[in-house]
Amino acid sequence: MTPGQRFFMGVRKLGPDMRFVPELSARQAVRIAASQAVWRPAWRPAALALGQVFHSTLRWPGRYFLPDDQISVIMQGCYADIGRAVDSEDIRDACRDIDRLWGRQHHPAFWGSCIDQPLIWLVEQLETSA
User: Fold this and answer.
1) DSSP codes, the chain
2) pLDDT tens across 65-108, in order?
3) What is the pTM of this model?
């Protein structure tokens, strides 16, 4: 045991409580294509494209996300099965992939404004500013 480990023995880890991630991951993994019926038909392709980015870049087990899914949680990524948290480079890659799909580059302030929003907000922003 290192001196640092001895010093912090019995001290709760700092940072957010992420114990909910395995359950959230399991629920998200079983979503099926039919779950996308809740999206406005014109926005389904955008929701599916974003889902693919979140799946491949942020390691979510499924590709289907719902309008009320919180962007702050999505961007944390799903690392329950691999034991490694998503880092800021993964988030930048996801934003870059989304920009590429929509054919434009959004200012970092745009991405910062997304954090406290549900996914429907992002889809609406991307689709109405197209």
Assistant:
1) --HHHHHTTTPPPSS---TTHHHHHHHHHT--GGGGGGS-GGGHHHHHHHHHHHHHHS--S-S---TTSBHHHHHH---TTTS----HHHHHHHHHHHHHHHTS---HHHHHHHTTSBHHHHHHHHHHT-
2) 999 999 988 887 765 444 455 667 888 899 999 999 999 999 98
3) 0.79
Q: What is the pLDDT of residues 8-45, one digit of tens each?
A: 556 555 555 666 777 778 888 899 999 999 999 999 99
> Distance between CA 80 and CA 24 in Å, rounded?
9
Whether the Cβ atoms of residue 67 and residue 39 lie closer than 8 Å to each other: yes
How do the domains of the chain map onto residue ranges?
A: 41-130
Which tokens go with 112?
């910062």
What is the phi/psi pair of residue 70, to 5°?
-80, 130
